[in-house]
């Protein structure tokens, strides 16, 4: 069967669907919530884990929908999933960088883009992303139990784009409101001594995506303290509300 090239709208949809799966996976592999809060699903022909907590799922879904709206406009530069401690200090940043390669008029956004990647090929790339993510603990180590970690989802826009703050417009009124992000959660607020690990990248021919994880200097300072001990059995609680 001949693979058909992606359209612009398919690229946006494919990337945002992947982001939602990846966010759930990050929360699972970094044990932000107990393992029994997640159920096993199948996506991209591989097992994945999805939260079964309604409020958490609603928060993630709403954030991804808001990201999709800005991605379609070419406004998004990075999506960052920040892991933070009980004092709201950033420990890790999972960074999804996007680059819109072409401009497509609204009336052509459902038309296949010549020489773009096919949907089947993109799914294979996303599977490779998730395989890499599922093994990330061997690279990052476990978070310490006393950190009582939580998370936030941050969208970084291009410098020439105005950040939407407050309720969405009439067209997107079902999306959650935007609020300004704490600078320490953004890549711009990252100290120079933070460690960056590049994981994967994919060039779709429409919107390119790369994935990296950054460990904060604060996390490494704590790991160097001799009295610290790692216990991966106790992380967030099901009763915690997503931030």
Plain-language structure description:
- The protein is of the alpha+beta class and 243 residues long.
- Helix content is 28%, strand content 24%.
- It is built from five helices and seven strands.
- The chain has helices spanning 8-29, 54-72, 119-134, 137-140, 217-224, and strands at residues 38-43, 46-51, 76-84, 90-100, 150-157, 195-203, 207-215.
- It has a five-stranded antiparallel sheet. A two-stranded antiparallel ribbon has the order 1-2.
- A hairpin with a 2-residue loop joins strand 1 and strand 2.
- Helix 1 runs parallel beside helix 3.
- The longest helix has 22 residues, at 8-29.
- The radius of gyration is 18 Å and the shape is globular.
- It starts with 7 loop residues before the first helix and ends in a 19-residue tail after the last helix.
- Residues 228-243 have low confidence and may be disordered.
Features of the shown structure:
alpha+beta; 243 residues; 5-stranded antiparallel β-sheet; disordered C terminus; two-stranded antiparallel sheet; 5 helices; 28% helix; globular
Spans of at least 5 consecutive residues whose pLDDT stays below 50 are 228-243
Q: How many alpha or pi helices?
A: 5
**Elements, N to C (H/E):** HEEHEEHHEEEH
Report the sheet with the most strands, covering strand number, pairing sense and barrel closure: 5 strands, antiparallel
Radius of gyration (Å): 18 Å
Span between termini: 45 Å
Shape label: globular
Structural class category: alpha+beta
- Count of DSSP strands: 7
Note the beta-strand portion. Answer: 15-25%
Mean pLDDT: 83
Spatial strand sequence of the major β-sheet:
5-3-4-7-6
Report the helical percentage.
Answer: 25-40%
